[in-house]
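Hello Y.,

Per our agreement to keep a running log of every chain we model this quarter, I'm adding this entry. I've kept the format consistent with earlier entries: sequence first, then predicted structure.
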Amino acid sequence: MMKDDNASLRRRLFIDQAGDGRLSSFLAVVSVFFIGLMFIAVSTDPVVIGVNKGEMPPNITGEARIAHSEWFSFDLYAKFNGSWNGNITTDRWFVIEFMDTDCPYCWRDAETMSQIDAQFGGVIITIVVATELNIAGHESSRKEIEAFQDKTDFEGCYTGNRNCADRPGDIHQGSNGNLFYYVEDLPGKALSEWNLQGTPTCFLLKPNGLVAFNSAQDGGCEQLGVKLYEIFGSGGN
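Predicted structure for the entry above:
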């Protein structure tokens, strides 16, 4: 009987020691896991929402169209590549212009957008956000936006004094894979969330969505082509 009791005691001790070992291993793994999370939290820079260079702009959602097409749902954030590796040619960059179809400067810059598309259409996605400034004579509509994009007959562009078919530049339909979206923002929601005061205002976003160019800080929309050339040279198509 004594031998049986001793054997039983040894088995219990072995089981207890094995259990203690497994518990210690588990606690060690958990500790390493939480230390790793703490390291990531400390070492990873938080993404700042804003429109300055290096920041992530607010999302743009709503309805958009491509030239000569119907309107469809649009979500800017859904197009970003959060795991972009920094290689400038692996993913498309985003050219964003806020414009108003009644804005004389936007009328002029429509040709600039055509030129940028012709030279860099192979490496960009163009997103024109068609908004409406709270200024007398600025009364846009979907029909006017469509006519401005497609260069079709519609009296009402340029503060209502020009036919949209006569605007400078080509039809904004994109080349070399550039989709050239027009997003309706007639309520001005995106304009307000991006804290913009006027049009045209242009941005260049990296494939991961971070701002690389802001025309309000970098010399105007006419400098956007210069920035693209600095990044891509003449290899934009």
